[in-house]
UniProtKB/TrEMBL annotation:
Pfam families (alphabetical): ILV_EDD_C (PF24877), ILVD_EDD_N (PF00920)
Phylogenetic placement of the source organism: Bacteria, Pseudomonadati, Pseudomonadota, Alphaproteobacteria, Hyphomicrobiales
Similarity comment text for this entry: Belongs to the IlvD/Edd family.
Enzymatic class: lyase
Superkingdom to which the source organism belongs: Bacteria
Keywords for this protein: Iron, Iron-sulfur, Lyase, Metal-binding
Domain Dihydroxy-acid/6-phosphogluconate dehydratase N-terminal: start-end pairs: 47-360
Entry's Gene Ontology molecular function annotations: dihydroxy-acid dehydratase activity
InterPro entries, per database record: Dihydro-acid_dehy_C, ILV_EDD_C, ILV_EDD_N, IlvD/EDD_N, Sugar_Degrad_Dehydratases
Name this polypeptide is given: Dihydroxy-acid dehydratase
Entries under SUPFAM superfamilies matching the protein: IlvD/EDD N-terminal domain-like, LeuD/IlvD-like
Dihydroxy-acid/6-phosphogluconate dehydratase C-terminal domain sequence ranges: 370-574
């Protein structure tokens, strides 16, 4: 279906491989590329050259099976008349990269921009999985704006331990509390954690990985149903083949990220994130993707568009089940089907399938109502992010889908936004300080305490760390108090089930109000007004300013230094400042 003759225009790659004006250079390009086994006839034949942005490796184990799946991507690309060219991306392994993989998201973005722009690629398949592999890839695809399609790796199989489902990350937070309360041994802690990872794939909870792959699908950037297929299922390989086919068609039809990534698509994604109980990391990542797509997205959109959406997915950490059951229940399309029926989704948006989102969602109603709830009978009402501001920060979010009924009763009225909570702050400068002092009786932490952590934002950490979900001291855990309100300028794991106020911007290291709060101050959280303030008068705050900012560690690597010089705050996506001025750069071919 894709003989060269059918492509109505000259392909980008022909500027390298079939350029009579630069015969000498064309000869050089052809000669070297043949090392991968392709022939000059293929390269010069005007066939679409499709990059496979390979995110899997031994050091990116959540995505490692993409090394195998790429074979099916290649089959699809070949059968559609394209030429696959696979190349590695900068690894982004959430669990193991120190001080945090957040530091590397912008680095991976930069690297991929250079590859997509500077090499003879007509389109690209973005292989994704682990948390930041999805946003970094979509950010880059937007900047360059060649036809692109997301191919998710899929979650691990469901984990079981002692007859209970144990989900990635979530099991760690829950076991950590049980261990501190003396309910389980060290060995049981480790065994439960290891049992949560029974196969290839990314985290099987609705953590940041599953969330961001769902966001890619909700944006219209992957084939329908792609996000949730477990990594080990045969459907995953079939989805690879179809994605490969479609990648070539996208080039033929010249469908680019800029045709799909509109404001309407991003608002759809925000609403889907509420309905799946998605990760708070979706906030900076969607913001970053929108920026590079040239789409205006506002920090308050999370509140105005997302807050009132109910929780429909009964998946950990907000619910009970894991990735396999979610997929069998219909996955992301079934969630979107509910939102579409309820008029909470713009079904008219175009997608990489070539059809509108509404077309994609035909007959996608879930048949498993234990796992995917009808919109009218949700797991929880108002499950989106609450947006807060005050004299501690201009912006922070709170993920309401994981706020327990007990906590809601304690602090919220039935309308959800009312309720005022005041507590005494206990302030930690970074996670080392928290670990060193959390059990110190002198801090007098009780059930009315608000735990504050700072120095954990993009500048402070650097990179912004998932440390805001601090657990209460052991003496409270032993009394069954499993969560205290926490506030911080860092993030929290998408797998955490803590009632945290996080992603605060500006961060303390940038001179935000968190820099001037002191242990013992009263903090008032007014859910009704969406405010969070330290009850300290302005004069006193001014006096504290004279003390300067909390100390920040020096940069340890060249990139840390460059990152700090260029990064924006979490409210703005923690992007590279001014990088969004580079838009659709593939329109201008790179010079020879
Ligand atoms: Fe990679 Fe969770 S650590 S997906
Ligand atoms: Mg994470």
């Amino acid at each position: 279906m894709t003989e060269a003759g059918k492509i109505p225009r000259r392909l980008r790659s022909q500027d390298w491989f079939d350029n009579p004006d630069h015969l000498d250079l064309t000869a050089l390009y052809l000669e070297r590329f043949m090392n991968s086994g392709v022939t000059p006839e293929e390269l010069r034949g005007g066939k679409p050259i499709i990059g496979i942005a390979q995110s899997g490796s031994d050091i990116n184990p959540c995505n490692r099976h993409h090394l195998e799946l790429a074979k099916r991507l290649r089959d699809g690309i070949r059968d559609a008349g394209g030429i696959p060219i696979e190349f590695p991306t900068h690894p982004l392994f959430e669990n193991c990269k120190r001080p945090t993989a957040a530091l590397d998201r912008n680095l991976a973005y930069l690297g991929l921009v250079e590859i997509l722009y500077g090499y003879p690629l007509d389109g690209v398949v973005l292989t994704t999985g682990c948390d930041k592999t999805t946003p970094s890839a979509l950010m880059a695809a937007s900047t360059v704006d060649i036809p692109a399609i997301v191919f998710s790796g899929g979650p691990m199989l469901d984990g079981w331990h002692d007859g209970d489902l144990v989900g990635s990350g979530t099991v760690i937070w829950r076991s950590r509390r049980k261990f501190a309360a003396g309910e389980i041994s060290r060995e049981e802690f480790l065994e439960a954690a290891l049992d949560s990872a029974p196969s290839i794939g990314h985290c099987n909870t609705m953590g940041t990985a599953s969330t961001m792959n769902a966001m890619a699908e909700a944006l219209g950037m992957s084939l329908t149903g792609c996000a949730a297929i477990p990594a080990a299922y045969r459907e995953r390989g079939q989805m690879a083949y179809r994605t490969g086919l479609r990648a070539v068609e996208l080039v033929i039809d010249d469908i680019k990220p800029s045709d799909i990534l509109t404001r309407a698509a991003f608002l759809n994604a925000i609403r889907v994130n509420s309905a799946i109980g998605g990760s708070t990391n979706a906030q900076p990542h969607l913001m970053a993707m929108a920026k590079h797509a040239g789409v205006e997205l506002f920090p308050d959109d999370w509140q105005t568009e997302g807050y009132d959406i109910p929780l429909l997915a009964n998946v950990q950490p907000a619910g009970a089940y894991l990735g396999e059951r979610f997929h069998r229940a219909g996955g992301v399309p079934a969630i979107m089907w509910e939102l579409l029926q309820a008029n909470k989704l713009d079904g008219s948006v175009p997608t990489v399938t070539g059809q509108t989102m509404a077309d994609n969602l035909k007959d996608r109603e879930s048949t498993d109502r234990e796992v995917i709830k009808p919109f009218a009978e949700p797991l929880k009402e108002r499950a989106g992010f609450l947006v807060l501001k005050g004299n501690l920060f201009d912006f922070a979010i709170m993920k309401m889908s994981v706020v327990s009924e007990d906590f809601r009763r304690r602090y919220l009225s039935e309308q959800g936004r009312e309720g005022i909570f005041e507590g005494k702050a206990v302030v930690f400068d970074g996670s080392e300080d928290y670990h060193a002092r959390i059990n110190d009786p002198a801090l007098g932490i009780d059930e009315r305490t608000i735990l504050v952590i700072r120095g954990a934002g993009p500048l402070g950490w650097p990179g912004s760390a998932e440390v805001v979900n601090m657990q209460p001291p052991d003496h409270l855990l032993k009394r069954g108090i499993v969560s205290l309100p926490t506030i911080g300028d860092g993030r929290q794991s998408g797998t955490a089930d803590s009632p945290s106020i996080l992603n605060a911007a500006p961060e303390s290291a940038a001179g935000g109000g968190l820099a001037y709060v002191r242990t013992g101050d009263t903090i008032r959280i007014d859910f009704n007004q969406g405010r969070c303030d330290m009850l300290v008068d302005d004069g006193e705050i001014e006096r504290r300013r004279a003390d300067g900012l909390p100390p920040m560690r020096p940069s340890a690597t060249p990139w840390q230094k460059l990152y700090r010089q260029t990064v924006t705050q979490l409210a703005d996506g923690a992007t590279i400042r001014d990088a969004e001025q580079f838009r659709q750069i593939a329109k201008t071919p790179p010079r020879h």
